[in-house]
Write a structure and sequence with these properties.
By secondary structure, this protein is mainly alpha-helical. The chain contains four helices and no strands.
């Protein structure tokens, strides 16, 4: 007596797997909602009056020569300072990066200056 090891699948068990929307239509058009619990809590607490009090205290601390408070106030007022780095080789010249295109031909890429 041979036993069939293939499980039987009922059409009713597959009914829930079929999407209730048309082909090409998203089942979740808005996507997964992004939760921001800290931001949500702060939005409730940070009224314009509270923000004004915080700003005044930050400026008071900056006037007292608190470097972290001054840096934060300056960053908010003037924007953060852009940091640039120049890489130089052993001869002091700027390092030149060359990226080669590997294609079907043996023609090297055009020289850039």
């Amino acid at each position: 007596m041979a036993s069939d090891s293939t499980p039987r699948i009922s059409p009713n068990s597959l009914a829930n797997l079929r999407p209730p929307w048309k082909p090409g239509e998203s089942g979740n058009p808005g996507g997964k909602p992004r939760r921001k619990p800290l931001t949500d809590a702060l939005e409730l607490e940070l009224t314009p009056e509270v923000c004004k009090i915080i700003a005044q205290r930050m400026v008071e601390k900056a006037k007292e020569a608190s470097v972290p408070h001054f840096s934060e106030v300056a960053d908010r007022v003037e924007g953060r300072v852009i940091q640039t780095k120049e890489l130089t080789g052993s001869d002091g010249d700027v390092i030149r990066v060359v990226v080669e295109y590997i294609g079907l031909t043996n023609t090297p890429p055009a020289e850039t200056t």
